[in-house]
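Subject: for your reference before the review

Hello V.,

The reviewers asked for a structural picture of the protein, and I figured it would be easier to keep everything in one thread rather than splitting it across files. Below is the amino acid sequence we used in the manuscript, unchanged from the supplementary table.
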Amino acid sequence: MNSRERVLAAIHHKEPDRVPVDLGGCGQTGINASSLYALRKVWGLPEHRIRICEPYQLLGEVELDVLQKAGADVVPLWNRGTLLGTTGACTKPWEMPDGTPVWMPSDFEYDVNEKGETLVYPCGDRSAPYSAHMPKGGSFFDGIDRAEEYDEDHLTPLEDYRESFAVKDEEDCRYWEKESVRLSEHSDFAVMGVLGGMGLGDAAEIPGPFLKHPRGIRKMEDWLMAHILYPDYLDAVFQMQTEVMLKNLELYRQAVGDRIQVIWVSGTDFGTQNGLMQSREIFQKLYKPYYQKVNDWIHQNTSWKTFYHSCGAVAELIPDFIEMGVDILNPVQCSAKGMDAAFLKETYGDRIVFWGGGIDTQATLPRGTAKEVYDQVLKRLEIFSKGGGYVFAAIHNIVAGVPPENLTAMYQAVRDFRER
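And here is what came back from the structure prediction:
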């Protein structure tokens, strides 16, 4: 099997010739540019500036030589725009706080203040207030709460969020078509379309780091309380977001056709380490109908499999995910309460694909020994790979500062398992 055939088998719950691997296939299976730079060095690959494919998290572009060395099978079809509102090509040289040399989008504009914080302008517009910041010594950005106080008695959800959701233009469509042809017809990798746009209540998007002047309920604590205080506000936002998403899906289908195998739909986290962000009842009432509508459209009009990312203890929601048409669940946070790997595979493995779960990126990968990493990867592969329905990836992105020997131990374990 080639990479595309391998992934297709796995996501159709068939056992492929070997376990598929994802490194860098989307914004939640990637690697921080700092760790990528170190990995290239330890693998003896040419050293050069790392191209940043997702500046908010400072994820590095995983090039062909790294894909081959890692045995990876998936590549991303990115959008032109980013969470910081930039759209330019990565041609601006920059050094991360730890000295890692990278290429940032040409319209990336920032300042460094007296505390050593890096402050970013949305859309590269220096006339707008800063929209994201990174503390001194940091390795990724966080959004800044900038919205003015809202009138609780006169809420205006459609006006507040209209700028957040836009129908894509012809330039986007041409870009999708060109890139999908390049990725699909000139390689045998599986292609994940990272369209986005359906992350209902996504904590990275609510503050609006890509907007010059966000309005309305934007602080995450206010947004979470709005589930109880102003559910009609959220419902109006979700309805508008879904309507725009369906229009963009049709444009995307026309542009890429069957040149992608997986579509990244949502990155909203519904879990914490120990439980749900909201009750299951709230999820079923506010979120599920809109996700169902989008998934139904995708399944009725394309051959794509739907990819959903949700961190945390979400085992309670997996039956709802399956019912509303989620094909693939990521990152499979096995360290969270109720997310035991064997339980998940045995209970749901024949009805939903697990994409992730391969190594704990909170503790084992950054702070464990190389042997602990190796052993955990082997154990997870043994559990999840049986009968297909699994793509190996770390639990969320590989962060900065991971010991290079732990990274190599992870991929050595994958290679050894594949060769059994």
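For the response letter, the relevant points are probably these. The domain at 3-91+149-418 is CATH 3.20.20.210 (TIM Barrel). The mean pLDDT is 98.

Happy to draft the paragraph if you're swamped.

O.
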